[in-house]
Amino acid sequence: MKMQPVFGGIAFCAFGLFWFSLAGLILLPSAGLIDAPTPISVAAYLFFWGMYTFVMPLATLKLGSKAIMFVFVTLFMLFMLLAIVNATGNAGLLVIAGYVGLIMALGSLYTALAIVLNDAYEKTVAPV
Known about the structure:
This protein is an all-alpha fold and 128 residues long. Helix content is 82%, strand content 0%. The chain is built from 4 helices and no strands. The chain has helices at 5-30, 39-63, 66-88, 91-121. Helix 2 packs antiparallel against helix 3. The relative contact order is 0.11.
């Protein structure tokens, strides 16, 4: 399966920026450079990243990859759950979000390995 480099580039850049911005939200307050974000502002931050992530599976419809769609759908669920946890402080929901995160991580690992194996062997070794 050949994927458009534009989709991968946008996805990797956007989520790379997510990690940089999240690190800033965590590290800058501890360095005393900014005030710590409120839980509701973190919830809004996660919600808007969830909305961005919601659009990504729509692009995977064109790619025809169920594995990539699974990763983005579970990532969307994770962002929404974490946004709700930050807005409400519900610790039980945080546990559920953790399990969704683990499922998403396993799906991501499978997808990445399948793409690498399929490309290396120039045939479908693992369906994507």
